[in-house]
Specification:
The chain is an alpha/beta fold. It has 12 helices and 10 strands.
């Protein structure tokens, strides 16, 4: 009997101990996938957030650029990763709202395969030209494009990105024929634009505003609904020529579907804290990027509304990539 009681006591004692794998999060380095090349707004913000998470949690956050297929390559990697909070992605309007309507075959589902963590920023877009393009207004650009069908080319960060969608929406609303040249990210696209290989690009303001200020590119109009405090003298495309035109890029952090809710909540809280820091907020405002506090639930609802919105735009504009 004593042996039996001892065995029961010993079993109960072990049951009271925490499981061997129930370690505090994070308990190993975090892999932060950016599905675009280095240098773009998604990459920049991933590195800002990653460094501050490293400082706060004393665990390395390794940013890894896995570009290609409009962001689908990097997104697929995260969708198929273990849902333990140690693999994240800086998703975008392309990877998590547009591509599902744009590509006939997708290697992941943007809703089913991910757990939304936090909407990081909404970045205003800017239509910029190579200085050799002989126009100063949107109306002049439209007139030139109509006079030279198929001769002007617009660069984009890749199929399915906001810069691609903005160009297609512009073509549809302005009724012009301009050629789409997709790149693997904003940085190579902007580099070629500066070199004169293409005529124009719709890009997030943080990635092109410095080039405008340096005189390497010419700002023609803002792609969002309202003028930007970062470029108050630049009109919107809507007010300049095409009423109703509006494209705003966004990026946000996602984890694989099935990631525990407490881990998602902790990540959200830390990212919200980071985005409010005094060395982060002014930088965003100066570069035309906006941040608004949000919960994982609010971000999930926003993502679904964006999928519906851009699905309609793609269908109406008959955008086809494959």
């Amino acid at each position: 009997m004593k042996t039996l009681l001892a065995g029961v006591w010993l079993a109960a004692s072990f049951a009271a101990l925490p499981a061997a794998d129930a370690q505090p999060y994070p308990n190993k380095p975090i892999r932060f996938i950016v599905p675009f090349p280095a240098g773009g707004i998604a990459d920049v913000m991933a590195r800002v957030i990653g460094q501050k998470l490293t400082d706060a949690w004393n665990q390395p956050v390794v940013v890894e650029n896995r570009a290609g297929a409009g962001g689908n390559i990097g997104a697929e990697i995260v969708a198929k990763s273990p849902p333990d909070g140690h693999t994240l992605i800086m998703g975008s309007i392309g990877t998590h709202a547009v591509n599902v309507s744009l590509f006939s075959k997708m290697p992941y589902d943007p809703v089913r395969d991910f757990a939304p963590v936090a909407l990081v920023i909404q970045a205003e877009g800017l239509l910029v030209l190579h200085p050799s393009v002989p126009v100063k207004t949107v109306k002049e650009l439209i007139a030139l494009a109509r006079a030279r069908p198929g001769q002007l080319a617009y660069a984009s960060a890749g199929n399915g990105t906001a810069s691609h969608l903005a160009g297609e929406l512009f073509k549809s609303m302005a009724k012009v024929d301009i050629v789409h040249i997709p790149y693997k990210g904003n940085v190579p696209a902007i580099t070629d634009l500066i070199g004169g290989q293409t005529s124009m690009i719709f890009a997030t303001m943080p990635t092109v505003l410095p080039q405008v200020k340096a005189g390497k590119l010419r700002a023609l109009a803002v792609a969002s609904a309202q003028r930007s405090p970062a470029a108050p003298d630049v009109p919107t495309i809507a007010e300049a020529a095409l009423p109703g035109f509006e494209v705003t890029n966004w990026i946000g952090v996602f984890a694989p579907a099935g990631t525990p809710a407490d881990i998602v909540a902790r990540l959200n809280a830390e990212i919200m804290r980071i985005m409010r820091l005094p060395d982060v907020q002014p930088r965003l405002a100066n570069e035309g990027a906006k941040f608004a506090p949000n919960t994982p639930h609010e971000f999930a609802a926003f993502q679904k509304s964006e999928i519906a919105k851009w699905g309609k735009v793609i269908r109406d504009a008959r955008v086809v990539t494959d």
